[in-house]
Amino acid sequence: MKKMKYVLVTGGVVSGLGKGVTASSIGLLLKACGLRVTSIKIDPYLNSDAGTMSPFEHGEVFVLDDGGEVDLDLGNYERFLDVKLTRDNNITTGKIYQYVLDKERRGDYLGKTVQVVPHITDAIQEWIERVAMIPVDGKEGPADVCVIELGGTIGDIESMPFIEALGQFSYRVGAGNFCLIHVSLVPVLNVVGEQKTKPTQHSVRGLRGLGLTPNILACRSTTALDENVKEKLSQFCHVSAEHIITLYDVPNIWHIPLLLRDQKAHEAIFKVLNLLGTAKEPSLKEWTARAEICDTLHEPVRVALVGKYTGLSDSYLSVLKALLHASVACRKKLVVDWIAASDLEDVTETENLDAYKAAWKLLKGADAVLVPGGFGDRGVQGKILAAKYARENGIPFLGICLGMQIAVIEYARSVLGLKDANSTEFDSNTRNPCVIFMPEGSKTHMGGTMRLGSRRTYFQVMDCKSVKLYGNRRFIDERHRHRYEVNPDMVAHLENAGLSFTGKDETGCRMEIVELHDHPYYIGAQFHPEFKSRPGKPSALFLGLIAAACGQLDAVLQGCESREKVSCDIGNCLNSNKKVYQKNVNGYATKHANIIGDAAIYSYCNGVHS
Ligand code: GLN
Fold first, then answer.
1. What is the pLDDT of residue 442?
2. Best of 60, 309, 375, 383 to mutate for ligand 1, by most ligand atoms within 8 A of CB?
3. Where does the CTP synthase N-terminal domain start and stop, copy by copy (predicted)?
Protein backbone atom coordinates (compact mmCIF):
# COMPACT_ATOMS: atom_id res chain seq x y z
CA MET A 1 0.00 0.00 0.00
CA LYS A 2 1.26 3.47 -0.84
CA LYS A 3 2.31 5.57 2.11
CA MET A 4 0.42 8.68 3.13
CA LYS A 5 2.49 11.88 3.05
CA TYR A 6 1.95 14.52 5.72
CA VAL A 7 2.46 18.28 5.60
CA LEU A 8 2.28 19.89 9.03
CA VAL A 9 1.67 23.64 9.23
CA THR A 10 2.55 25.38 12.49
CA GLY A 11 2.53 29.05 13.42
CA GLY A 12 4.90 31.20 15.39
CA VAL A 13 5.41 34.71 16.79
CA VAL A 14 1.77 35.90 16.85
CA SER A 15 -1.67 34.51 16.15
CA GLY A 16 -3.73 35.75 13.24
CA LEU A 17 -1.02 35.28 10.62
CA GLY A 18 -3.42 33.59 8.23
CA LYS A 19 -2.12 30.11 8.98
CA GLY A 20 -5.43 28.54 7.95
CA VAL A 21 -5.43 30.25 4.57
CA THR A 22 -1.77 29.36 4.11
CA ALA A 23 -2.43 25.70 4.89
CA SER A 24 -5.46 25.64 2.54
CA SER A 25 -3.38 27.29 -0.17
CA ILE A 26 -0.64 24.70 0.24
CA GLY A 27 -3.31 22.02 -0.14
CA LEU A 28 -4.66 23.69 -3.26
CA LEU A 29 -1.19 23.99 -4.78
CA LEU A 30 -0.51 20.30 -4.20
CA LYS A 31 -3.90 19.44 -5.67
CA ALA A 32 -3.05 21.55 -8.72
CA CYS A 33 0.02 19.33 -9.13
CA GLY A 34 -2.26 16.33 -9.54
CA LEU A 35 -2.18 15.02 -5.97
CA ARG A 36 -5.25 14.07 -3.97
CA VAL A 37 -5.30 16.11 -0.78
CA THR A 38 -7.14 15.87 2.53
CA SER A 39 -6.71 17.96 5.65
CA ILE A 40 -6.95 17.91 9.42
CA LYS A 41 -7.27 20.92 11.67
CA ILE A 42 -6.08 20.62 15.25
CA ASP A 43 -7.62 23.05 17.74
CA PRO A 44 -5.92 22.74 21.09
CA TYR A 45 -8.88 24.14 23.05
CA LEU A 46 -10.86 22.00 25.50
CA ASN A 47 -14.30 22.25 23.86
CA SER A 48 -15.14 19.00 22.10
CA ASP A 49 -16.29 20.98 19.11
CA ALA A 50 -17.03 24.53 18.01
CA GLY A 51 -20.79 24.07 18.47
CA THR A 52 -20.90 25.76 21.85
CA MET A 53 -18.53 28.59 21.01
CA SER A 54 -19.76 32.12 20.43
CA PRO A 55 -19.34 33.24 16.82
CA PHE A 56 -18.83 36.71 18.26
CA GLU A 57 -15.61 35.61 19.94
CA HIS A 58 -14.43 32.82 17.75
CA GLY A 59 -15.92 33.34 14.31
CA GLU A 60 -18.65 31.28 12.71
CA VAL A 61 -19.43 27.68 13.50
CA PHE A 62 -18.92 25.81 10.25
CA VAL A 63 -21.25 22.87 9.62
CA LEU A 64 -20.27 19.74 7.72
CA ASP A 65 -22.38 17.19 5.83
CA ASP A 66 -22.19 14.76 8.75
CA GLY A 67 -23.48 17.42 11.14
CA GLY A 68 -20.07 18.18 12.63
CA GLU A 69 -19.95 21.72 14.09
CA VAL A 70 -16.36 22.69 13.47
CA ASP A 71 -13.82 25.47 13.31
CA LEU A 72 -14.22 27.90 10.42
CA ASP A 73 -10.85 26.87 9.00
CA LEU A 74 -12.49 23.66 7.80
CA GLY A 75 -14.63 25.92 5.64
CA ASN A 76 -11.44 27.32 4.07
CA TYR A 77 -10.26 23.78 3.35
CA GLU A 78 -13.56 22.74 1.84
CA ARG A 79 -13.68 25.85 -0.35
CA PHE A 80 -10.06 25.77 -1.50
CA LEU A 81 -9.81 22.02 -2.02
CA ASP A 82 -13.44 21.48 -3.04
CA VAL A 83 -13.73 18.52 -0.67
CA LYS A 84 -16.23 17.36 1.95
CA LEU A 85 -14.64 16.83 5.34
CA THR A 86 -15.95 14.90 8.31
CA ARG A 87 -16.28 15.94 11.96
CA ASP A 88 -13.21 13.84 12.77
CA ASN A 89 -11.10 16.06 10.51
CA ASN A 90 -11.27 18.60 13.33
CA ILE A 91 -9.34 17.40 16.37
CA THR A 92 -9.67 19.22 19.68
CA THR A 93 -8.12 18.57 23.07
CA GLY A 94 -11.64 17.89 24.33
CA LYS A 95 -12.25 15.16 21.75
CA ILE A 96 -8.94 13.44 22.44
CA TYR A 97 -9.36 13.47 26.22
CA GLN A 98 -12.95 12.27 25.88
CA TYR A 99 -11.74 9.38 23.73
CA VAL A 100 -8.98 8.44 26.16
CA LEU A 101 -11.22 8.79 29.23
CA ASP A 102 -13.93 6.63 27.63
CA LYS A 103 -11.29 3.98 26.99
CA GLU A 104 -10.12 4.26 30.57
CA ARG A 105 -13.70 3.78 31.87
CA ARG A 106 -14.06 0.68 29.71
CA GLY A 107 -10.92 -0.70 31.29
CA ASP A 108 -9.06 -0.77 28.00
CA TYR A 109 -5.81 0.37 29.62
CA LEU A 110 -5.66 -2.84 31.69
CA GLY A 111 -4.92 -1.22 35.02
CA LYS A 112 -2.15 1.05 33.77
CA THR A 113 -1.71 4.66 34.89
CA VAL A 114 -3.20 6.75 32.09
CA GLN A 115 -0.87 9.62 31.17
CA VAL A 116 -0.44 12.45 28.68
CA VAL A 117 2.61 10.62 27.32
CA PRO A 118 2.05 7.99 25.96
CA HIS A 119 -1.76 7.66 26.10
CA ILE A 120 -2.88 11.10 24.94
CA THR A 121 -0.01 11.40 22.47
CA ASP A 122 -0.72 7.92 21.07
CA ALA A 123 -4.41 8.73 20.73
CA ILE A 124 -3.52 11.87 18.76
CA GLN A 125 -1.28 9.95 16.37
CA GLU A 126 -3.79 7.15 15.86
CA TRP A 127 -6.54 9.70 15.23
CA ILE A 128 -4.45 11.49 12.60
CA GLU A 129 -3.55 8.26 10.82
CA ARG A 130 -7.12 7.03 10.83
CA VAL A 131 -8.72 10.29 9.63
CA ALA A 132 -6.09 10.92 6.96
CA MET A 133 -7.28 7.73 5.25
CA ILE A 134 -10.90 8.89 4.87
CA PRO A 135 -11.51 9.90 1.23
CA VAL A 136 -12.94 13.43 1.07
CA ASP A 137 -12.89 14.24 -2.65
CA GLY A 138 -15.59 11.85 -3.81
CA LYS A 139 -13.05 9.38 -5.16
CA GLU A 140 -12.25 5.97 -3.78
CA GLY A 141 -9.30 5.20 -1.55
CA PRO A 142 -7.20 7.52 0.59
CA ALA A 143 -5.65 10.79 -0.58
CA ASP A 144 -1.94 11.16 -1.37
CA VAL A 145 -1.22 13.99 1.04
CA CYS A 146 -2.76 15.11 4.32
CA VAL A 147 -2.23 18.73 5.34
CA ILE A 148 -2.38 19.09 9.13
CA GLU A 149 -2.77 22.54 10.61
CA LEU A 150 -1.90 22.97 14.24
CA GLY A 151 -3.97 25.83 15.66
CA GLY A 152 -2.48 28.36 18.07
CA THR A 153 1.12 29.50 18.32
CA ILE A 154 4.21 27.46 19.16
CA GLY A 155 4.81 27.73 22.88
CA ASP A 156 1.15 27.75 23.94
CA ILE A 157 0.69 25.52 26.98
CA GLU A 158 -2.37 23.79 25.57
CA SER A 159 -0.70 22.71 22.35
CA MET A 160 2.16 20.88 24.11
CA PRO A 161 0.65 17.35 23.94
CA PHE A 162 0.05 17.88 20.21
CA ILE A 163 3.60 19.08 19.61
CA GLU A 164 4.96 16.07 21.46
CA ALA A 165 2.64 13.75 19.52
CA LEU A 166 3.59 15.32 16.18
CA GLY A 167 7.30 15.06 17.02
CA GLN A 168 6.84 11.33 17.63
CA PHE A 169 4.65 11.12 14.56
CA SER A 170 7.36 12.49 12.27
CA TYR A 171 9.58 9.58 13.33
CA ARG A 172 6.75 7.12 13.07
CA VAL A 173 5.97 7.96 9.44
CA GLY A 174 9.64 8.33 8.60
CA ALA A 175 11.81 10.75 6.63
CA GLY A 176 10.42 11.50 3.20
CA ASN A 177 6.84 11.29 4.45
CA PHE A 178 6.66 14.31 6.70
CA CYS A 179 7.20 17.98 5.86
CA LEU A 180 6.97 20.75 8.42
CA ILE A 181 6.11 24.25 7.25
CA HIS A 182 6.41 26.94 9.87
CA VAL A 183 4.45 30.14 9.27
CA SER A 184 6.09 33.11 10.92
CA LEU A 185 6.20 36.88 10.89
CA VAL A 186 8.92 39.20 9.60
CA PRO A 187 7.91 42.65 10.81
CA VAL A 188 9.25 45.91 9.44
CA LEU A 189 10.14 48.55 11.97
CA ASN A 190 9.01 51.85 10.60
CA VAL A 191 11.81 53.88 12.12
CA VAL A 192 14.52 51.92 10.32
CA GLY A 193 12.36 50.34 7.58
CA GLU A 194 14.23 47.08 8.07
CA GLN A 195 12.80 43.56 7.89
CA LYS A 196 13.44 42.00 11.27
CA THR A 197 14.30 38.32 11.51
CA LYS A 198 14.63 37.95 15.26
CA PRO A 199 11.01 36.96 16.02
CA THR A 200 11.24 34.16 13.44
CA GLN A 201 14.60 33.02 14.79
CA HIS A 202 13.11 32.80 18.26
CA SER A 203 10.06 30.90 17.17
CA VAL A 204 12.11 28.41 15.15
CA ARG A 205 14.35 27.92 18.15
CA GLY A 206 11.23 27.26 20.24
CA LEU A 207 10.05 24.72 17.70
CA ARG A 208 13.40 22.91 17.70
CA GLY A 209 13.48 22.94 21.47
CA LEU A 210 10.22 21.00 21.36
CA GLY A 211 11.67 18.42 19.00
CA LEU A 212 10.30 19.65 15.66
CA THR A 213 12.54 20.75 12.78
CA PRO A 214 11.04 23.00 10.11
CA ASN A 215 11.69 22.07 6.49
CA ILE A 216 10.17 25.22 5.04
CA LEU A 217 9.59 28.71 6.43
CA ALA A 218 6.62 30.73 5.21
CA CYS A 219 7.23 34.30 6.32
CA ARG A 220 4.39 36.78 6.48
CA SER A 221 5.52 40.31 5.76
CA THR A 222 4.28 43.43 4.04
CA THR A 223 6.69 43.13 1.12
CA ALA A 224 8.86 40.40 -0.41
CA LEU A 225 11.85 39.45 1.74
CA ASP A 226 15.18 40.97 0.75
CA GLU A 227 17.76 38.39 -0.35
CA ASN A 228 20.05 39.24 2.55
CA VAL A 229 17.17 38.80 4.99
CA LYS A 230 16.51 35.35 3.53
CA GLU A 231 20.20 34.50 3.85
CA LYS A 232 20.20 35.57 7.46
CA LEU A 233 17.08 33.53 8.24
CA SER A 234 18.59 30.58 6.45
CA GLN A 235 21.76 30.80 8.49
CA PHE A 236 20.09 31.20 11.85
CA CYS A 237 17.17 28.85 11.30
CA HIS A 238 19.04 26.12 9.38
CA VAL A 239 16.58 26.18 6.48
CA SER A 240 17.97 26.60 2.97
CA ALA A 241 17.15 29.90 1.26
CA GLU A 242 15.07 28.17 -1.47
CA HIS A 243 12.90 26.82 1.30
CA ILE A 244 12.10 30.27 2.63
CA ILE A 245 8.90 31.63 1.11
CA THR A 246 7.53 35.15 1.60
CA LEU A 247 3.82 35.55 1.98
CA TYR A 248 3.64 39.27 1.44
CA ASP A 249 0.42 41.26 1.45
CA VAL A 250 -1.85 40.60 -1.55
CA PRO A 251 -5.13 42.18 -2.65
CA ASN A 252 -7.18 39.04 -1.97
CA ILE A 253 -6.54 35.62 -0.47
CA TRP A 254 -6.94 33.79 -3.78
CA HIS A 255 -3.44 35.09 -4.60
CA ILE A 256 -1.80 33.10 -1.80
CA PRO A 257 -1.64 29.79 -3.73
CA LEU A 258 -0.16 31.77 -6.63
CA LEU A 259 2.48 33.35 -4.40
CA LEU A 260 3.42 29.89 -3.19
CA ARG A 261 3.59 28.56 -6.73
CA ASP A 262 5.67 31.50 -8.00
CA GLN A 263 8.20 30.86 -5.25
CA LYS A 264 8.22 27.15 -6.03
CA ALA A 265 6.89 26.05 -2.66
CA HIS A 266 5.60 22.86 -4.31
CA GLU A 267 9.11 21.91 -5.39
CA ALA A 268 10.43 22.45 -1.89
CA ILE A 269 7.63 20.28 -0.48
CA PHE A 270 8.17 17.57 -3.11
CA LYS A 271 11.86 17.51 -2.33
CA VAL A 272 11.12 16.87 1.35
CA LEU A 273 8.43 14.31 0.57
CA ASN A 274 10.40 12.47 -2.12
CA LEU A 275 7.82 13.32 -4.72
CA LEU A 276 10.03 15.14 -7.22
CA GLY A 277 9.43 13.55 -10.57
CA THR A 278 6.07 12.03 -9.65
CA ALA A 279 3.95 15.17 -9.34
CA LYS A 280 3.34 17.44 -12.32
CA GLU A 281 3.71 21.20 -12.65
CA PRO A 282 0.83 23.04 -10.96
CA SER A 283 -2.04 23.98 -13.22
CA LEU A 284 -3.89 26.95 -11.76
CA LYS A 285 -5.25 28.67 -14.85
CA GLU A 286 -8.83 29.06 -13.70
CA TRP A 287 -7.80 29.98 -10.18
CA THR A 288 -5.34 32.64 -11.43
CA ALA A 289 -7.95 34.18 -13.72
CA ARG A 290 -10.45 34.40 -10.88
CA ALA A 291 -7.95 35.98 -8.48
CA GLU A 292 -7.07 38.61 -11.07
CA ILE A 293 -10.64 39.31 -12.13
CA CYS A 294 -11.55 39.84 -8.51
CA ASP A 295 -8.97 42.66 -8.34
CA THR A 296 -10.31 44.39 -11.45
CA LEU A 297 -14.01 44.48 -10.55
CA HIS A 298 -15.15 47.98 -9.77
CA GLU A 299 -18.89 48.24 -10.34
CA PRO A 300 -20.37 47.62 -6.89
CA VAL A 301 -23.22 45.42 -5.80
CA ARG A 302 -24.30 46.54 -2.33
CA VAL A 303 -25.63 43.90 0.01
CA ALA A 304 -27.09 44.87 3.37
CA LEU A 305 -26.25 42.16 5.88
CA VAL A 306 -28.73 42.57 8.70
CA GLY A 307 -27.40 40.53 11.57
CA LYS A 308 -26.42 40.36 15.16
CA TYR A 309 -22.71 39.79 15.35
CA THR A 310 -21.72 42.64 13.09
CA GLY A 311 -18.61 43.47 15.13
CA LEU A 312 -16.59 40.52 13.85
CA SER A 313 -16.84 39.72 10.16
CA ASP A 314 -15.61 36.15 10.79
CA SER A 315 -18.96 35.50 12.49
CA TYR A 316 -20.47 35.32 9.01
CA LEU A 317 -17.42 34.09 7.10
CA SER A 318 -19.15 31.53 4.87
CA VAL A 319 -21.99 33.93 4.06
CA LEU A 320 -19.42 36.52 2.99
CA LYS A 321 -17.55 33.97 0.89
CA ALA A 322 -20.77 32.80 -0.77
CA LEU A 323 -21.67 36.41 -1.57
CA LEU A 324 -18.20 36.90 -3.01
CA HIS A 325 -18.39 33.77 -5.19
CA ALA A 326 -21.73 34.96 -6.57
CA SER A 327 -20.56 38.55 -7.10
CA VAL A 328 -17.45 37.46 -8.99
CA ALA A 329 -19.63 35.23 -11.19
CA CYS A 330 -21.78 38.31 -11.94
CA ARG A 331 -18.68 40.46 -12.43
CA LYS A 332 -19.52 42.86 -9.63
CA LYS A 333 -17.49 44.18 -6.78
CA LEU A 334 -19.08 43.00 -3.56
CA VAL A 335 -19.75 45.72 -1.02
CA VAL A 336 -21.25 44.47 2.22
CA ASP A 337 -23.04 47.02 4.37
CA TRP A 338 -23.17 45.69 7.89
CA ILE A 339 -26.32 46.63 9.71
CA ALA A 340 -26.81 45.75 13.36
CA ALA A 341 -30.43 44.61 13.25
CA SER A 342 -31.32 46.33 16.51
CA ASP A 343 -30.31 49.71 15.03
CA LEU A 344 -33.33 49.49 12.73
CA GLU A 345 -35.73 49.21 15.66
CA ASP A 346 -37.96 51.96 17.07
CA VAL A 347 -36.20 51.89 20.44
CA THR A 348 -32.97 52.94 18.75
CA GLU A 349 -34.79 55.88 17.20
CA THR A 350 -35.45 57.21 20.67
CA GLU A 351 -32.20 56.12 22.27
CA ASN A 352 -29.66 56.71 19.51
CA LEU A 353 -31.11 58.59 16.59
CA ASP A 354 -27.83 58.76 14.64
CA ALA A 355 -27.38 55.00 14.68
CA TYR A 356 -31.02 54.53 13.67
CA LYS A 357 -30.73 56.94 10.75
CA ALA A 358 -27.42 55.46 9.60
CA ALA A 359 -28.85 51.93 9.67
CA TRP A 360 -31.92 52.87 7.63
CA LYS A 361 -29.80 54.84 5.18
CA LEU A 362 -27.65 51.78 4.56
CA LEU A 363 -30.68 49.53 4.19
CA LYS A 364 -32.32 51.90 1.73
CA GLY A 365 -29.13 52.20 -0.30
CA ALA A 366 -28.72 48.44 -0.71
CA ASP A 367 -29.20 46.48 -3.93
CA ALA A 368 -30.02 43.35 -1.92
CA VAL A 369 -30.85 42.44 1.67
CA LEU A 370 -29.60 39.34 3.44
CA VAL A 371 -30.75 38.18 6.86
CA PRO A 372 -28.43 35.37 7.99
CA GLY A 373 -28.90 32.65 10.60
CA GLY A 374 -28.86 33.37 14.30
CA PHE A 375 -30.01 32.42 17.77
CA GLY A 376 -31.69 34.42 20.51
CA ASP A 377 -34.08 37.33 20.32
CA ARG A 378 -31.78 40.34 20.15
CA GLY A 379 -32.39 42.25 16.93
CA VAL A 380 -35.30 40.06 15.81
CA GLN A 381 -37.63 43.04 15.42
CA GLY A 382 -34.99 44.85 13.31
CA LYS A 383 -34.65 41.80 11.07
CA ILE A 384 -38.43 41.68 10.65
CA LEU A 385 -38.39 45.35 9.62
CA ALA A 386 -35.62 44.67 7.09
CA ALA A 387 -37.56 41.74 5.58
CA LYS A 388 -40.70 43.88 5.40
CA TYR A 389 -38.82 46.70 3.73
CA ALA A 390 -37.33 44.33 1.12
CA ARG A 391 -40.70 42.66 0.49
CA GLU A 392 -42.66 45.86 0.11
CA ASN A 393 -40.07 47.62 -2.02
CA GLY A 394 -39.16 44.80 -4.37
CA ILE A 395 -35.57 44.62 -3.10
CA PRO A 396 -33.93 41.19 -3.66
CA PHE A 397 -33.97 39.35 -0.35
CA LEU A 398 -32.42 36.16 0.95
CA GLY A 399 -33.25 34.88 4.42
CA ILE A 400 -31.12 32.06 5.77
CA CYS A 401 -32.35 29.78 8.56
CA LEU A 402 -33.42 32.36 11.18
CA GLY A 403 -33.69 34.76 8.23
CA MET A 404 -36.26 32.46 6.60
CA GLN A 405 -38.20 32.18 9.85
CA ILE A 406 -38.15 35.97 10.09
CA ALA A 407 -39.63 36.25 6.59
CA VAL A 408 -42.47 33.93 7.60
CA ILE A 409 -43.16 35.80 10.84
CA GLU A 410 -43.17 39.11 8.97
CA TYR A 411 -45.61 37.78 6.39
CA ALA A 412 -47.93 36.41 9.03
CA ARG A 413 -47.91 39.74 10.86
CA SER A 414 -48.18 42.10 7.89
CA VAL A 415 -50.23 40.14 5.40
CA LEU A 416 -52.31 37.78 7.54
CA GLY A 417 -52.73 40.51 10.12
CA LEU A 418 -51.64 38.23 12.98
CA LYS A 419 -49.98 40.95 15.01
CA ASP A 420 -48.50 38.65 17.64
CA ALA A 421 -47.28 35.99 15.18
CA ASN A 422 -43.89 34.83 16.39
CA SER A 423 -41.46 32.00 16.84
CA THR A 424 -41.81 30.14 20.11
CA GLU A 425 -38.05 30.67 20.42
CA PHE A 426 -38.81 34.35 21.16
CA ASP A 427 -42.31 34.19 22.64
CA SER A 428 -43.37 30.85 24.04
CA ASN A 429 -46.90 32.14 24.72
CA THR A 430 -47.74 33.61 21.33
CA ARG A 431 -51.26 32.83 20.13
CA ASN A 432 -49.95 32.57 16.59
CA PRO A 433 -46.84 30.42 16.67
CA CYS A 434 -45.77 30.35 13.04
CA VAL A 435 -42.33 28.98 13.94
CA ILE A 436 -42.17 26.18 16.50
CA PHE A 437 -39.78 23.75 18.19
CA MET A 438 -39.94 20.58 16.12
CA PRO A 439 -37.06 18.25 17.01
CA GLU A 440 -36.37 15.26 14.83
CA GLY A 441 -35.99 13.07 17.90
CA SER A 442 -37.35 13.43 21.42
CA LYS A 443 -39.52 16.45 22.25
CA THR A 444 -38.77 16.30 25.93
CA HIS A 445 -35.05 15.69 25.92
CA MET A 446 -33.35 19.03 25.28
CA GLY A 447 -29.81 17.81 24.61
CA GLY A 448 -28.86 17.07 21.01
CA THR A 449 -32.13 18.41 19.62
CA MET A 450 -30.52 20.47 16.91
CA ARG A 451 -31.24 19.39 13.33
CA LEU A 452 -27.70 19.23 12.08
CA GLY A 453 -25.94 18.42 8.82
CA SER A 454 -27.05 17.40 5.37
CA ARG A 455 -30.79 16.86 4.80
CA ARG A 456 -32.72 16.52 1.58
CA THR A 457 -35.12 19.13 0.22
CA TYR A 458 -37.70 18.16 -2.43
CA PHE A 459 -38.99 20.85 -4.74
CA GLN A 460 -42.78 21.13 -4.72
CA VAL A 461 -43.27 23.05 -7.95
CA MET A 462 -41.19 23.33 -11.08
CA ASP A 463 -41.94 26.94 -11.95
CA CYS A 464 -40.23 28.79 -9.14
CA LYS A 465 -36.93 30.62 -9.03
CA SER A 466 -35.22 28.34 -6.56
CA VAL A 467 -35.72 25.15 -8.55
CA LYS A 468 -34.45 26.85 -11.69
CA LEU A 469 -31.41 28.19 -9.89
CA TYR A 470 -30.68 24.67 -8.69
CA GLY A 471 -30.78 23.42 -12.27
CA ASN A 472 -34.33 22.00 -12.21
CA ARG A 473 -33.37 19.16 -9.97
CA ARG A 474 -36.03 17.22 -8.12
CA PHE A 475 -34.17 17.47 -4.84
CA ILE A 476 -31.07 18.99 -3.31
CA ASP A 477 -28.95 18.25 -0.25
CA GLU A 478 -27.97 21.18 1.90
CA ARG A 479 -26.63 21.62 5.45
CA HIS A 480 -28.77 22.51 8.44
CA ARG A 481 -28.26 23.84 11.95
CA HIS A 482 -31.50 24.72 13.69
CA ARG A 483 -34.10 23.68 16.26
CA TYR A 484 -37.17 25.59 15.15
CA GLU A 485 -39.29 25.17 12.02
CA VAL A 486 -42.22 26.75 10.26
CA ASN A 487 -45.38 25.50 11.98
CA PRO A 488 -46.96 22.97 9.55
CA ASP A 489 -50.43 23.91 10.87
CA MET A 490 -50.04 27.43 9.52
CA VAL A 491 -48.67 26.54 6.11
CA ALA A 492 -52.02 26.40 4.27
CA HIS A 493 -53.04 29.75 5.73
CA LEU A 494 -49.77 31.36 4.64
CA GLU A 495 -49.92 29.76 1.20
CA ASN A 496 -53.46 31.01 0.63
CA ALA A 497 -52.14 34.48 1.32
CA GLY A 498 -49.46 34.15 -1.36
CA LEU A 499 -46.39 32.80 0.40
CA SER A 500 -45.16 29.66 -1.38
CA PHE A 501 -43.32 26.84 0.29
CA THR A 502 -41.45 25.60 -2.75
CA GLY A 503 -39.14 23.16 -0.98
CA LYS A 504 -40.00 20.65 1.77
CA ASP A 505 -38.35 17.65 3.39
CA GLU A 506 -39.30 14.08 2.43
CA THR A 507 -42.21 14.01 4.87
CA GLY A 508 -43.66 17.28 3.60
CA CYS A 509 -43.86 18.50 7.21
CA ARG A 510 -40.71 20.57 7.34
CA MET A 511 -40.60 23.72 5.22
CA GLU A 512 -37.22 24.14 3.57
CA ILE A 513 -37.64 26.93 1.00
CA VAL A 514 -40.11 29.79 0.97
CA GLU A 515 -40.66 32.16 -1.96
CA LEU A 516 -42.77 35.04 -3.12
CA HIS A 517 -43.61 34.66 -6.79
CA ASP A 518 -44.71 38.24 -7.37
CA HIS A 519 -41.46 39.72 -6.10
CA PRO A 520 -38.23 40.16 -8.09
CA TYR A 521 -36.39 37.86 -5.66
CA TYR A 522 -37.65 36.99 -2.21
CA ILE A 523 -36.42 33.64 -0.96
CA GLY A 524 -35.89 32.09 2.43
CA ALA A 525 -34.14 28.80 3.13
CA GLN A 526 -34.25 26.80 6.34
CA PHE A 527 -30.83 25.36 5.41
CA HIS A 528 -27.50 27.17 5.10
CA PRO A 529 -26.55 27.24 1.41
CA GLU A 530 -23.41 29.23 2.22
CA PHE A 531 -21.56 26.18 3.52
CA LYS A 532 -21.42 24.53 0.11
CA SER A 533 -20.56 27.56 -2.01
CA ARG A 534 -17.19 27.35 -3.77
CA PRO A 535 -15.03 29.77 -5.75
CA GLY A 536 -16.16 29.24 -9.35
CA LYS A 537 -19.21 27.29 -8.17
CA PRO A 538 -21.38 29.85 -6.40
CA SER A 539 -24.28 28.58 -4.35
CA ALA A 540 -27.54 28.74 -6.34
CA LEU A 541 -29.52 30.95 -3.95
CA PHE A 542 -26.65 33.41 -3.52
CA LEU A 543 -26.15 33.59 -7.26
CA GLY A 544 -29.86 34.31 -7.61
CA LEU A 545 -29.67 37.09 -5.02
CA ILE A 546 -26.70 38.83 -6.60
CA ALA A 547 -27.98 38.33 -10.15
CA ALA A 548 -31.32 39.87 -9.10
CA ALA A 549 -29.50 42.74 -7.40
CA CYS A 550 -27.66 43.65 -10.60
CA GLY A 551 -30.36 43.01 -13.16
CA GLN A 552 -29.03 39.67 -14.39
CA LEU A 553 -31.56 37.28 -12.88
CA ASP A 554 -33.68 36.76 -15.99
CA ALA A 555 -30.64 35.85 -18.04
CA VAL A 556 -29.38 33.53 -15.33
CA LEU A 557 -32.77 31.83 -15.00
CA GLN A 558 -33.26 31.63 -18.76
CA GLY A 559 -29.92 29.95 -19.16
CA CYS A 560 -31.26 27.08 -17.13
CA GLU A 561 -34.89 27.33 -18.19
CA SER A 562 -35.14 23.87 -19.60
CA ARG A 563 -33.35 21.21 -17.68
CA GLU A 564 -33.63 18.84 -20.60
CA LYS A 565 -31.93 21.25 -22.95
CA VAL A 566 -29.28 21.99 -20.41
CA SER A 567 -28.40 18.40 -19.81
CA CYS A 568 -28.24 17.39 -23.46
CA ASP A 569 -26.74 20.61 -24.72
CA ILE A 570 -24.83 22.32 -22.00
CA GLY A 571 -22.74 24.16 -24.59
CA ASN A 572 -25.67 26.26 -25.76
CA CYS A 573 -26.54 27.20 -22.25
CA LEU A 574 -22.99 28.31 -21.66
CA ASN A 575 -22.86 30.34 -24.83
CA SER A 576 -26.10 32.18 -24.21
CA ASN A 577 -24.95 33.09 -20.75
CA LYS A 578 -21.52 34.22 -21.66
CA LYS A 579 -23.04 37.36 -23.11
CA VAL A 580 -24.47 38.24 -19.75
CA TYR A 581 -21.22 37.57 -18.04
CA GLN A 582 -19.24 39.63 -20.47
CA LYS A 583 -21.45 42.63 -19.98
CA ASN A 584 -19.92 44.90 -17.34
CA VAL A 585 -16.58 43.24 -17.67
CA ASN A 586 -13.62 45.40 -18.36
CA GLY A 587 -9.97 45.15 -19.37
CA TYR A 588 -8.25 42.11 -18.05
CA ALA A 589 -11.47 40.53 -16.94
CA THR A 590 -12.79 40.32 -20.50
CA LYS A 591 -9.90 38.14 -21.49
CA HIS A 592 -10.80 35.61 -18.88
CA ALA A 593 -14.56 35.98 -18.78
CA ASN A 594 -15.19 32.65 -20.43
CA ILE A 595 -13.12 30.65 -18.04
CA ILE A 596 -14.91 31.87 -14.95
CA GLY A 597 -18.25 32.32 -16.60
CA ASP A 598 -18.17 28.73 -17.77
CA ALA A 599 -17.36 27.43 -14.36
CA ALA A 600 -20.11 29.43 -12.72
CA ILE A 601 -22.70 28.71 -15.37
CA TYR A 602 -21.80 25.07 -15.52
CA SER A 603 -22.19 24.76 -11.81
CA TYR A 604 -25.65 26.20 -11.54
CA CYS A 605 -26.99 24.76 -14.79
CA ASN A 606 -25.95 21.37 -13.66
CA GLY A 607 -26.95 21.90 -10.09
CA VAL A 608 -23.37 21.19 -9.11
CA HIS A 609 -23.31 23.86 -6.51
CA SER A 610 -21.10 22.21 -3.96
N1 GLN B 1 -32.64 30.02 16.06
C2 GLN B 1 -33.25 29.36 14.96
C3 GLN B 1 -33.46 27.87 15.22
O4 GLN B 1 -32.88 27.31 16.12
C5 GLN B 1 -32.44 29.55 13.71
C6 GLN B 1 -31.11 28.88 13.74
C7 GLN B 1 -30.17 29.38 12.72
O8 GLN B 1 -30.40 30.42 12.09
N9 GLN B 1 -29.06 28.68 12.50
O10 GLN B 1 -34.22 27.24 14.53
1. 63
2. 375
3. 5-275
